[in-house]
């Protein structure tokens, strides 16, 4: 009788050992975030709270070199966009972490740079804006070229402060 139990105990031990080995499954695509782009020397995000409003600007501090300006009235949920575009363009095309949106824009010739200054409005809860809020960088497509606006360490907090104030 003892001999019959030995194979059963060995089989049970072998089954338990095999069951405890985990094979990793595939990583879901939604869990993979696009890697963050590198910041550009001299350019950064600058957050400026104002009385009942906020401004988040990407460019060279204290200069006319602005690549993307975001303005809002506190709690409004609406963001006014300002960018430098090509002459005749009437669309602002933004991308962040895989989300992309196009915003119909008004334009006028720039007195400082070549091209037009484009303005448009966006909702703070638009998918591209929410992705920007989460990943801290955004890109603009101008004439088929992608310009990435990534923060330097420490300035990404201004992105969150801007969205927290805008609503």
For this entry, give a set of tags.
167 residues, Immunoglobulin-like, alpha+beta, six-stranded antiparallel beta sheet, disordered N terminus, globular
What's a concise summary of this model?
The chain has helices at 2-19, 127-135, 156-166; strands at 44-50, 53-59, 66-73, 78-85, 91-96, 99-104, 106-109, 116-123, 138-142, 145-149.
Verbal overview:
With 167 residues, the protein is an alpha+beta fold. It contains three helices and ten strands; from the N terminus they run αββββββββαββα. A six-stranded antiparallel beta sheet has the order 1-2-3-4-8-7, with helices on one face. It has a four-stranded antiparallel beta sheet with strand order 6-5-9-10. Strand 3 and strand 4 form a beta hairpin. The N terminus is likely disordered.
Which structural class do you get from the secondary structure elements?
alpha+beta
CATH class: Mainly Beta
The largest sheet has its strands arranged as 1-2-3-4-8-7
Low-confidence stretches: 1-33
Major pleated sheet: 6 strands, antiparallel
Q: Which H/E pattern describes the elements?
A: HEEEEEEEEHEEH
Measured by DSSP, the beta-strand proportion falls in 35-45%
Note the total helix count.
3
The radius of gyration is 26 Å
Q: Assign the CATH architecture.
A: Sandwich
Number of domains: 1
**Global outline:** globular
CA-to-CA gap between the ends?
Answer: 76 Å
At the fold tier of CATH, the topology name is: Immunoglobulin-like
**What is the residue-averaged pLDDT?**
83
Count of strand segments? 10
Proportion in helices: 10-25%
